[in-house]
Amino acid sequence: MRTLLLAALVALASPALAHPLDDDWLPGLMVGEGFDIARDPAQAAEHRVQILVSVVKEKGGRKVLERHGFRVDAEYFYPASAVKTCGAVAALQRFAELRKAGKQVGLDTPLTFHPVLPGERVFRLDASHVDGGKVTLGHLIRQMSIVSSNEAFNRLYELSGHEGLNRRMQAAGLSGTVFTHRLSRILSTDENRKTPRIDLAAKGGVVTLPEATSALALPAAAMPRVEVGDAYLEPGTGKRVEAPMSFAEKNRMSLVDLQNMLVMITRPDVDLGLPGFGLEEADRKFLVEAMRQRPGESTDPVYPEDKYNPRRFKPVLGGLLRVGPLERWTIYSKAGKAYGFRIENAYVVDTKTKKGFFLTVNVLANPNRVMNDGAYAYDQVADPFIHALGERLARTIFGD
Hints:
The protein is an alpha+beta fold. 33% of the residues lie in helices and 20% in strands.
C-alpha cells in the first residue's frame, strides 16, 4: 500500500502538472545538503513542498517580477498564520472608508468589541498596550504581525467581517484566497459568519459597526489533495478518526496569492497586473514596519527576545545568519505553522548589496501522518529546509 501511495505522489509531482511559474532555476539551485525533501519527487509530494522566489527587475520602464517556481500550487496546503496579514489590510481599508465618509477614526482610536458568541465578554482593555491599555487597530496589527497573536487576528477578522474580508481580497486580485473561519477557536460555520457590534470612540462621537451575519456563500475547495494524512484527532473531543482530514472547508490561499499580497504591501511600485490594495500611504507604512520588526525590537507591546525567538516568527533568518550578521538583514514577513504545515512568506533585503528577493515556501512536516495531534517535525524537517533555502538564495542572489 505504501509503495502505491508513493507512486501516486510521484505522479502528482510530475512535470505534466507543472505550474506556469515552475522552471529549472530552483531545482538547479537546490543541490547538496539540506535539500533532500525537494530533490526526490516522492518526498517533495509527501511534504507538499512548494516554493516561489521573485526578484524585482526593470522592464520597459516598469518594475516587474522575475519569478522562479517549484511545484507552485501543485496541491492544497493550509496557510495557517501566513494569512493573518489579510485581516490587517481589510481592517485598514474599512477604516479608510469610514474616514472618507467623514468619521474621525484611525490607528489609535479606542475600540470596544461586544459579545456575539457564547462565552464571550466585552473586550475593550489590553494590558499589553503600554500606551493607555486600550484596544486599538494599530495595537492589534502589531500584536498579529510581530508575534502572530491569534486573538489579534480574530479581532481584525471581526473588524472587516467574513464577507468584507473575502470581498476585499478578491477585489485586490487574490482570486485563490478564501476565508471561512477565525483561528484557534472551535466554532461552527454559522458562528464564523457572525461578527460583533464594535464601538469606535472616534473624535466627534462614537462610531458603531453593527453586529452582522455574512450571507456570502463560499464553495468548498476544489483542489488536488485537499484531504491530508491517514488519520486525525477530532477538534474538541480528541477522538481519533481513521481517515484523512479534509481541509475543503478551511481557509485557503494559493502560494502565488501569498506572495502577491506581500508584494502589494511592501513594493506597491511593482506592476503585478492586479488591482492591488490601494492602502493609504501612512497605513501601508505602519503595516510594513510591523511586518519588519523582530519581537525584541518592539517597545509596545513588549516581547523579550529570550522568550520570543525571532527565528520562530522569521524562519528564513536561520539561513541568512549563516551568510551574514543579524544587522545585515531586513525581513518583512508573516510566517505560519499549523497541522504540520510550515510557511514562510518573506521579502528579504540585504543592507550590504541593497538587493532583495521574495520567498514564499510551504513544507508539510507530519511524519506520523496524523493530523491535529501536535506531533509535528517543524524543527527536524521544515525549518532546516527553509534555512538551507534561505542561505542558498542569499549566496546566489547577493553574491556571497
